[in-house]
Amino acid sequence: MSEDARKDTPEQAEFRAWCRQWLAENSPAEPPVRLPQTPLEIMTREQLDYLQAWQKAAYEAGLVGCDYPVEVGGGGRKDCQRVANEEMQAARTPFFPNVIGLGMAAPTVFYHAQEAVKQELLPKLFSGEEIWCQGFSEPGAGSDLASVQTFAEKRGDKWIINGHKVWTSLAHFAEWMIILLRTDKSHKYDGLSYFVVPIRAALGKGVTVRPLIKITGETGFNEVIFDNLEVDDRYRLDELGKGWQVAMTTLLHERGAGELKTPQAGGMKNRSAHTISASAVMDLAKNIQREGRAASADPLLRDRLMALLIREQGFRQNQRRQRVQALLDHPMRLPLQHKLVISELAQDLASLAVDVEGMGSTLYLADDKAPAGGQWPLSYLNSYGMTIAAGTSEIQRNILGERVLGMPKSK
Questions:
Q1: Which among 3, 81, 329, 389 is placed 20 to 30 Å from 228, CA to CA?
Q2: Domain range list for the chain
Q3: Which of 107, 98, 81, 85 is nearest to 39 (CA)?
């Protein structure tokens, strides 16, 4: 029995047994196509169809949205999403495609939308039938999010949206977008309001989605252009001018504050199954030959690997602190720390793996001779996105220093 299972309440223990049994009996079939490393790189309809079917099955079994009220499509349980996440991770199930919907949109809609809007949107979000994306960054407002200029003008009971969002993962498949808009140009923060907008139905009629090709050749990113898109006022979340406060709900969950409530991505069960961990790099080093011996025999490499293993164990132990209520008095401390540490740790692990592979790391996915199916150089290239998304590492450090530790602001 795992340490987590030993701490289960009777309800959680019963639910864990159900999850384990259901997952054992309903393991998804092998995917018909190669899956990406994360949901943010889903490129084809075939990939999406497979992953949507899996999320829908898991939702109907009660493994998604567990802790949300039944009235909005949830399971009505208490602190059971964590249990489902742990069991799905142990079973190495495919990840859910609606990662932005589950991790960011759901809590934001739940805490700030009108009741009728919650009931309209959340069930299909949980099931994965409707994919969501996030409209925050703009060409002139990346790290300085409060400088967004995409504007919403009130006309009667409608809002007319014009502007340009960028780095919008999954917009090419999304039905809905959570979006931060400027509604008053005279105030930087108080001039922001928050909406949910239907973009799929408006393609060619006020919304244009253009793919952005990443260094990996993948096209999960997009830019989205709004040209007089008309949106009902009921899709405004919270009060006018409160967009910055609503955005903080989204960002806190994006950075990990809500991970005990919302499903996290699991593993993959196909040839491209890939886990970024010290043990995975260790296994790689044992299988890569250098001058007639395993790369793991190199003492310098072993030192680097042990240092990363220590960091990884420290991260796992720090995760457990999120269950200690006394440590959650400052709502940003652990989530900000979590995002900063895991993104940089993953990058360093991928970097070491590329060094282990040596010249073999120049071989890409399509090459049958690529070590580990070419997944490690892909991980390394993708890792830079994670140290930028949801606030760069530099900004995370500034926020931790200024708002958590009380240090003076940097100039």
A1: 389
A2: 3-97, 133-254, 278-404
A3: 98
170: left (phi over 0), alpha (psi -120 to 50) or beta: left
Q: State yes or no: pLDDT of 212 exceeds 70.
A: yes
- Residue 276 binned pLDDT confidence (cut-offs 50, 70, 90): confident
Would you put residue 228 in left (φ > 0), alpha (ψ -120 to 50) or beta?
Answer: left
Catalytic residue among 223, 254, 259, 357: 254
What CATH number does the domain located at 133-254 have? 2.40.110.10
Count of positions (residues) in the chain = 411
CATH code, residues 3-97: 1.10.540
CA angle at 79 for the pair 76 and 81, rounded to the nearest 5°: 80
Whether 86 is catalytic is no
Q: Nearest Cα to 350, choosing from 378, 369, 325, 374?
A: 378
Q: What is the pLDDT of residues 279-290, one digit of tens each?
A: 999 999 999 988
Helices 115-127 and 45-60 pack at an angle, to 10 degrees, of 110
Q: Is the per-residue pLDDT at 366 higher than 90? A: no
Q: Measured between alpha carbons, how far is 258 from 198 in angstroms, rounded to an integer?
A: 24
Tokens of 182: 């400027």
- Residue 301, token pair as written in the block: 């490499």
